[in-house]
Design a protein that fits this description.
403 residues; alpha+beta; five-stranded mixed β-sheet; disordered N terminus
């Protein structure tokens, strides 16, 4: 027989007492304390040895301990009545001490400070009434037992507060852990959305430009084969190659983020207003660019760049004209209240199409522009021009308060 097959995994040992339910645990505790009290009754302490009635009272006063956690006040009331009768018959006075201390501790550990104080005062007052006939000796015993009573109540109250603090600390730790997990999931979702937007803007713009440049080269080749304009064809091919190189560089930057998101400079410099000139030159159509803005926050500059890029892509794709003209205007201004600066971006064309041409399903371009604007607290409006043919995209991006 294979020795590995013959190996039997022994079950993990469990503590027998801990595996019991609370009622059985308390019943076992009551039985143990009853045995201890019986031993003390015949060996130690003052008072006479119990007779038949004494044994009945001594053993009976331990029975309520089995329900000490379920009904502590009821158990305490029953035990006080039995203990009072036991002591009044002058049986061994030390025997019930352990049981009485346990029930007082239980009441303090499971109740409010006000209830604990009320129980302590009531028990001490009852004990004074029972011992007042014993003179000075009875009062001395009363003071001694009062010390034990207060000690048990303070111990129970301290452990109750400790449990509450521990439970509160665990709850705060769990809440903090859930918050960290939710924050991590939110950041992952935001990063995935950002990468998706970058890839969409990059690929849609680059592929659209390549398509326009390829169409230009094909038109030159097919227009008059006998008088081929080699210069125009070479220019179109150079534009295609430049577009591919630019797209490859941006794509490499985005993929570096995916491979090593912990690298601080993996994302490279953000695109901004400084890149709008090259963007307009490579648009593949006549683009008129006007920029009247100073230094803006990098996030705002990147959002403006991507909005213009997507607007140019949509204009080229859906403009419907070979002689399309796109006007891009970016400028700073103060809002009506005069306390906040904003960057206004407006891209208009004189084409015949909309954001999605006829027969084409709507894409993610307008959604991406709105998400870009929302990421910096701005807004985007897009739709057919009211002052003539074509399409218009207007964005308002806040720059902060004026100082």
């Amino acid at each position: 027989m294979n020795p590995v097959q013959a190996t039997i995994t022994a079950p993990r040992p469990r503590r027998a007492f801990a595996s019991l339910d609370p009622l059985r645990q308390d019943a076992c505790l009551a039985a143990g304390l009853a045995a201890l009290a019986s031993l003390i009754a015949v060996t130690l302490g003052t008072g006479r040895h119990p007779d038949a009635l004494g044994w009945v009272l001594l053993l009976a006063l331990h029975v309520p301990l089995a329900w000490r956690r379920r009904a502590p006040l009821t158990a305490l009331t029953v035990m006080i009545a039995l203990i009072a009768g036991y002591h009044q018959l002058d049986y061994n006075h030390s025997a019930p001490t352990a049981a009485s201390m346990v029930i007082l501790y239980t009441v303090a550990a499971g109740g409010s400070p006000r209830r604990t104080a009320a129980v302590g005062v009531s028990v001490v007052a009852l004990m004074v009434v029972l011992k007042i006939d014993h003179g000075v000796a009875g009062l001395a015993v009363t003071f001694q037992i009062t010390g034990w009573i207060v000690s048990m109540l303070v111990l129970g109250g301290y452990l109750r507060v400790h449990r509450e603090n521990t439970a509160a600390a665990l709850e705060r730790a769990e809440r903090a852990e859930r918050t960290r997990e939710e924050e991590a999931r939110r950041r992952v979702a935001e990063e995935r959305l950002r990468i998706a937007r970058d890839l969409h803007d990059l690929l849609a713009h680059s592929i659209t430009l390549i398509g326009v440049q390829t169409s230009v080269a094909a038109h030159v080749l097919a227009a008059d084969p006998d008088r081929l304009d080699r210069t125009a064809v070479a220019r179109s091919l150079d534009d295609i190659a430049e577009t591919c190189r630019t797209a490859r560089g941006e794509l490499r930057t985005t993929l570096e983020v995916l491979r090593d998101p912990g690298t601080p400079d993996a994302r490279g410099p953000l695109p901004g207003l400084h890149g709008l000139t090259d963007l307009a030159k490579a648009a593949g159509v006549t683009a008129e660019l006007t920029v009247r803005a100073g230094e803006v926050p990098p996030a705002v500059g990147a959002a403006a760049y991507r909005i213009v890029q997507e607007a140019l892509t949509n204009a080229v794709r859906h403009g419907g004209r070979d002689d399309l003209t796109v006007r891009v205007r970016v400028h700073e201004e103060e809002q009506a209240e005069g306390s906040v600066r904003v960057l206004r971006v407006r891209v208009t064309d004189d084409g015949t199409g909309g954001a999605a041409g006829e027969g084409r399903p709507p894409g993610f371009g307008l959604v991406g522009m709105r998400e870009r604007a929302r990421s910096v607290g701005g807004t985007v409006e897009a739709g057919p021009r009211a002052d003539g043919p074509g399409f218009a995209v207007s964005a308002v991006l806040p720059l902060g308060e004026i100082r």
